[in-house]
Amino acid sequence: MKEKIMMVLTIMGYFHHFLLLTCVATAGSQVTYFDQYSEEGDGVGEDYSAPELTPVFTAKGQHFTVDVGGRVTFPCQVENQGGYMLMFKHIMPGGEHRTLYVGALPLRPTKRLTKNGNTFTLSGVRRSHAGTYVCRIETSPAIEVNHTLDVQYPATVRRLSPRVQRVVQGTSVTLECGGDGNPPAVITWTRQQGHLPSGNRLHEGHSITLTNADHDVEGTYICTASNGLGQPSSLEMLVEIQYPPDVSIEESLIHTGVGRYVELVCRVHGRPAPSVTWLKSGRTLTSSHYVASHDGLHRYSLTIKQVKEDDFGEYTCMAESTLGSTNSSLRLTGLPRVPLVTSSPAGREKTSYTLRWEAESHTPVIMYRLQHRKHKEGPVNNPSAGQWNIRLYSPNGPSGGPALAPLSSGPVQYMSHAITDLEPATDYEATVAVENKFGWSGDSEIFHFYTRKEVAVGQSVRGGGGSCHPLPPLATTLLASLTASLLLLAPVLPIL
C-alpha cells in the first residue's frame, strides 16, 4: 500500500513540472518553477526554489529636442531582464498609444525606427513623432522609463481673414493671421507702401485693426511669422477702401469757336467704379454729335468734332455708384478770354504810354474797353484812388484813331493802344477787356505803369520845377581840376 502511494505522488510531480514548462513557453517570460526533488535526499515533501531576480531599468528618462529631419536614440537598458520581454511604445500629444516593438518584433515596421539591443533610434524625425516614448516590462507591477521628444520646426503663417478686404470709407477693418512653429512663432505686421497708418514701421500681434479707414489706409499689408528656425514665413493681405464718387473738372470755362474741335474732360474717382453720364442743360446727351469716351482709369471725356453755336452752354459730368452720386459742371463758350497785358511798366514818353496786350478769341474782336487812372498808395479798391477814365474803342475805327497792332490769324490776337494826355513822371494803373460777337471778356488784372522820369543835376525828381542849388566850394574845385586834366589828356586820348 505504501509503494502505491509513493508512485502516485511521483506521477503528480512530473505532471506539475510539465505544466510549469508549458506556462513558460506560452508567456515568453521567465517563470521560476520548483523542483520537487532534492539532490541530497529522496524524501517526499522537501522542495528547493532558485531565487527570483526582479528586472530593473538602468536607463533614465530623458528630454530630447530635435529639429525636423534630425535623429534621436532612446535608451532602454535593463538589468536582470531574464526572459521578460521589453516593450517600446509611443504616446502621441493627443493621448493616442501606439506599440512599436514587443521584444524583437516590430509591430509597425518602418525604416525610420531601428532597434539595437535595448536602444531604439529614430531617423528623419517628423513633427508627428513628438510625444512620449515608453520602455516597459510587464512585471508585477510593470516597470517603465519615459522619454519625451520635442520636435522643433520653422514657423509657418496662415490667413485667418480674407486676402482682399473691401471696406467702406470711415469704417474699421481687422486683419488677422495665425502662426505655427516650435518654438512658438512671433507674428509681425508691416506695410508694402512703407509706414503703417499709425506711423510705426512694425506692429506685433496676431491681428491689426485699422480704424476710420480712408485712402491713407489702403494698401498691401504683410503678416510675417518667425521663430528663429529657417526663413520667416510671410503672406499678403490687401485692403481696398470703397468710397462715394468724386468728380473734378480740368477746366471750368472752355473758350472755343464755331467749327472748332473741342474736348470736355472730367476726372472721376470712386470704388466701386462709378457710372458716368454727360448732360447738357440738365438733359442726357444722346446725339451722335457728342462722343463720350473713357481711358480706362479716371479720365472721362466728351468730344465735339465741329462746334455749333447751339453747343455753347453748360455741361455736367454725373457720376453714380451704390455709395452715392455727385457731379461737376463746366461751360463751353465763344467769349474771348481775359486779356493779358504784356507791355513794360516803364514808359518812354513823358505824356503818353502805349499799352500792349494779348486777347484770345476764336472770332474777331469787335470792341475793346480801356480804363486808366492815376495810381495812389493804398488798397486796390481804395475810393481815394480816383475815378477810372473809361473809353470804348473799335479795332476797325477810322484813321487817326488809336494805334492798333495787326490782328493775328490765330485765336490769340495781339493788340495795343496809345494812352495820351498823361502827366510826366507819374504812376498810373489800367485794365482792358475785349468783345467779340458772343460778348465781353472779363477785365484784365490791374496793370501799373508810369510815364518817363528824368533827373536833372541838382534838381529834385519830385520837386517838379523846383529851384537849382549851387554846388559846394569843394565840389566846384574838384570839378574844375578834373576838367583841366581832361583837356591836357585830350591830344593822346583815342577818338571815340
Report what the structure shows:
This protein is mainly β and 496 residues long. The protein contains two helices and 36 strands. The chain has helices spanning 2-27, 473-489, and strands at 34-35, 48-49, 56-57, 63-67, 71-75, 78-79, 86-91, 97-102, 105-106, 113-116, 119-123, 131-137, 143-159, 164-168, 173-182, 186-191, 203-204, 207-210, 219-226, 233-249, 253-255, 262-271, 275-280, 283-284, 290-294, 299-304, 313-321, 324-333, 340-341, 353-360, 367-374, 389-393, 412-419, 427-436, 439-440, 447-450. Strands 4, 7, 8, 9, 12, 13, 15 and 18 form an eight-stranded mixed β-sheet that branches. Residues 1-46, 399-407, 456-471, 473-479 and 486-496 have low confidence and may be disordered.
What does this entry show, briefly?
The chain has helices spanning 2-27, 473-489, and strands at residues 34-35, 48-49, 56-57, 63-67, 71-75, 78-79, 86-91, 97-102, 105-106, 113-116, 119-123, 131-137, 143-159, 164-168, 173-182, 186-191, 203-204, 207-210, 219-226, 233-249, 253-255, 262-271, 275-280, 283-284, 290-294, 299-304, 313-321, 324-333, 340-341, 353-360, 367-374, 389-393, 412-419, 427-436, 439-440, 447-450.
